[in-house]
Amino acid sequence: MRTEFTAAQLTDPGLDEANSILRKCVHCGFCNSTCPTFKLLGDELDGPRGRIYLLKNLLEHDETPSEKIVSHIDRCLSCLSCMTTCPSSVNYMHLVDAGRSYIEKKFRRPFRDRLFRRLLAMTLPNPARFRLLLIFSRLLLPIRWLLPGRFQGALNLRTPSARAKLKQNGGTQDLTGKAVGLVAGCVQQVIGGDINSASIRLLERRGWRVHLLSEPACCGAVEHHLGKEALAEKRFRQNITDWIEHVDEHGLEALIVNASGCGTMLKDYGHLFRNDESLAADAGRISGMTRDIAEFLSDHHDMTNNGDVEQVRVVYQSPCSMQHGQKIDSQPLTLLRQAGFNVKELPEKYMCCGSAGTYNILQPAIAAELGERKAVYIEQADVDVVASGNMACMMHLRQFTDVPFVHTAELLDWATGGPKPF
Ligand code: SF4
Ligand code: SF4
After folding, report:
1. Each residue of 277-328: pLDDT tens digit?
2. Which among 198, 304, 310, 417 is placed 20 to 30 Å from 129, CA to CA?
């Protein structure tokens, strides 16, 4: 694609990067074929190729974006399916991140939107505030029908296991092995404690000492995807500094992540700080040692010899941040099959379920349509349980089907001696 940035503009590293990304695009439109919003809405500007044009014009002409342009960019799920499909390796993720940050600076959203987005950025990354939000949301449940759609979406954040406790080393394992860090996550450490506990048991059973990283809590993805770059950058810097301290102090070999959205974010720290003299090396180390739990287990262990779960039928829901963001696709399936489960895959597996970070709260109608579409395939699969690698997808999809959802790590934990998770 021909670009028209001026020489002065290209001295800005962000615009220089956008220019390089844009110049790779050959406008073939292959990406539209796997874009969930293009499939649903049928508008070129709600597909990746159209959005790339919009972002090009915005960044080149340094204009104030119109409400219409913002709505097309806002409707993008950041699912990155387009990146998997693109034959020219266009890095849409970095381009749309730059666009979101630009919109945040140049476009004044209506007061209610600004308030709502600020509320999300203030609460989700902070476990204490998020706990309060959960309690408050449960109080609002009886009158949820009185609330606007977005607020109804926010109520879906609730789950009953709000204070799950984490147990490390029950004393049954010989933990003479090497050490890894487990990133506890912000939302996950509040409502996904069972997933973290299962991950710890699973790793300890294989002889790894697990150092739980519950602080800093958030990887920064929430603020980053809301375009709140100053807040996100502050958090990234803090995380890199603190986590490197943990890594060096405890001799950690890897940082294990079991929420794939966070994994994608951590793996991008190295890129984000590549031009920062003081942090580039440490950011690169964090990215280089981040592993999704399925990726890590698949690299180091096999899960065979667990006969008890053979009759359990599982369908695997592949989170976008895992399959598109980190290119981890076959590993969870292989591990589950090794462990003895009868595993199926979903049709249209490349399609986002609609969860997408805060998307299901900010764009509830599209998110629900995608969730219902996924739920139909889940029901047709006729299984006992759905396995996923991302708690956000599980929480979102639970609204649309009664088939139970568990994390892949919980199933693997069960198959190797842990409690039954559903
Ligand atoms: S598939 Fe890639 S090269 Fe083709 S239009 Fe989409 S982003 Fe551009
Ligand atoms: S990230 Fe997903 S929703 Fe956004 S343009 Fe790409 S495929 Fe479409």
Report:
1. 999 999 999 999 999 999 999 999 888 766 677 789 999 999 999 999 999 9
2. 198
User: How far is the CA of 83 from the CAs of 3, 74, 78, 259, 357, in angstroms?
Assistant: 20, 18, 10, 20, 18
Statement: 303-415 belongs to CATH 3.60.20.10: no
37 lines ligand 2 (CB under 6 A): yes
Ligand 2: does its nearest atom lie under 6 Å from the Cβ of 76?
A: yes
State the amino acid at position 13 in one-letter form: P
Q: Which CATH number fits domain 9-106: 1.10.1060.10, 6.10.250.3280, 1.20.272.10, 1.20.1250.20?
A: 1.10.1060.10
Ranges for all domains in the chain classified under CATH 1.10.1060.10: 9-106
Give 81's pLDDT tier (boundaries 50, 70, 90). Answer: very high
CB contact set of 170 (below 8 Å; sequence gap of 6+): 201, 204
Which of the listed residues 52, 72, 79, 350 should we mutate to test ligand 2's pocket, taking the one with most ligand atoms within 8 A of CB? 79
* Residue 363, ligand 2, Cβ within 6 A: no
Look at the block and give the residue holding tokens 């995608």.
370
Helix (H, G, I), strand (E, B) or coil at 136: helix
- Residues 252-290 have pLDDT tens digits of 999 999 999 999 999 999 999 999 999 999 999 999 999
Q: Write the pLDDT tens digit of every residue in 126-161.
A: 888 888 877 777 776 665 555 555 555 555 554 544
For ligand 2, is residue 83 a contact (CB within 6 Å)? Answer: no
Q: Is 86 in the pocket of ligand 2 (CB under 6 A)?
A: no
The percent of residues above 70 in pLDDT, for the chain, comes to: 90
Alpha-carbon distance 422 to 405, whole Å? 8
- Nearest atom in ligand 1 to the alpha carbon of residue 85 is 1
**Binding site membership of 96 for ligand 1 (Cβ less than 6 Å):** no
Within 10 angstroms of residue 352's Cβ, the number of other Cβ atoms is 27
